[in-house]
Every structure is written in C-alpha cells, then in structure tokens.
Amino acid sequence: xxxxxxxxxxxxxxxESLRLSCAASGRTFSSYSxxxxxxxxxxxxxxxAAIRWxxxxxxxxxxxxxxxxxxxxxxxxxxxxxxxxxKPEDTAVYYCAxxxxxxxxxxxxxxxxxxxxxxxxxxxxx
Length: 126
Hints:
Blueprint: E1 3-7, E2 10-13, E3 18-25, E4 34-39, E5 46-51, E6 58-60, E7 68-73, E8 78-83, E9 92-98, E10 115-116, E11 120-125
C-alpha cells in the first residue's frame, strides 16, 4: 500500500508562487515515476507534470511549461511542484500520483497511475 499526502496549497494573487509537496510512504519511493495532476469541479483531471523514477526525465503540460518545475528528493521520499507566475486559470485541486510498478516511465494520463493523494487546493486570485 502506498500513502501520498500533499501539502503547500493556498490562496495567492496572480503572479505569485507556491511550492507543493507530496510526502510518500509505504514503498521504495525512488523506484517509482510520479506525476502531478489538477482538477476543477465539472472537468476531468488534467495532467500537469511528471518525473521519472530516477529524476532524469521531466514532462510538462503546455499550459505550465516555463512556469512550473517538478522535482523529487528520493532521500526524503518527497515530490515537489514549484509553481511560479501563477494565473487564475491555475486554480484547482492539485493531486500527486504514483505509478503502480517500479521502473515504469512516467505517464501523462490519470489512468497511468495507481496511487493518489487526497489533493490540495490552489486558488489564484486576479
């Protein structure tokens, strides 16, 4: 069983920054590719960013490229999402997710992940 706990969400103004964290427990974090997704009410969960288990490959949605940075600290079993130049359209609940088997490449679709956190709300005011 894998437990994922997000933190770091909040209310900010447009142009400001936030850093989300996702603490993982229950298995060898360093062996699993991870992703960040977001969702607003009435819409499907949307891919934001993903990182390979080794940290060597990064993937971003076009809408966040150049503003968001995904990273991981395998020694701390923690995934991060640094969000800069936030826009009102970034408002959503943000979820971290883990792939179900070790050493898989990252996925950009929600169906590619087996484990999810509870989500953290990010609200960006204009």
